[in-house]
Amino acid sequence: MEHTIDATEKKLGRVASEAAILLMGKNSPAFEKNKVADVKVKITNVSKLNVENKKLDNKEYQTYSGYPGGRKVKKMKQVIEKKGYAEVLKLAIYGMLPANKLRSKVLKNLMITE
């Protein structure tokens, strides 16, 4: 089954939570949490998302290499300039999926177009 979400003038979190629910297959009566749902989710017009300036300046994404001093922090504005709105939406959906072995497999069913 294939779902299409139009992100024009929608909030980032609302689009991400809708996509996460669809990717997990929670809207299907045949939902099984130990199986990857046979669902493709396509999100269009991501560059037209409604993101407030306050969030662009304050939201931080951090990575840690495991070494002392290896913590790197980037603001949302920097991530959008470097990789685009698609990366921000992908990270939001990634955080809403359950942290188990299926997370990366479920994310392969996500297509984002700007």
TrEMBL record:
Q: Which Gene3D superfamilies match?
A: Ribosomal protein L13
UniProtKB keywords: Ribonucleoprotein, Ribosomal protein
Q: What GO MF terms are annotated? A: mRNA binding; structural constituent of ribosome
Q: Does this UniProt record's set of keywords contain Cell inner membrane? A: no
InterPro entries referenced in this protein's UniProt entry, alphabetically: Ribosomal_uL13 (IPR005822), Ribosomal_uL13_bac-type (IPR005823), Ribosomal_uL13_sf (IPR036899)
What cellular component GO annotations does this protein have? ribonucleoprotein complex; ribosome
The UniProt record lists the keyword Hydrolase? no
Biological processes, Gene Ontology terms? negative regulation of translation; translation
SUPFAM superfamilies assigned to the protein according to its UniProt record, in alphabetical order: Ribosomal protein L13 (SSF52161)
Q: Could you tell me which NCBIfam families the record lists for this protein?
A: rplM_bact
What family does this chain come from, according to its entry? Answer: Belongs to the universal ribosomal protein uL13 family.
Q: What is this protein called?
A: 50S ribosomal protein L13
From what organism does this protein derive? Answer: Candidatus Campbellbacteria bacterium RIFOXYC2_FULL_35_25
Q: What is the lineage of its organism?
A: Bacteria, Candidatus Campbelliibacteriota
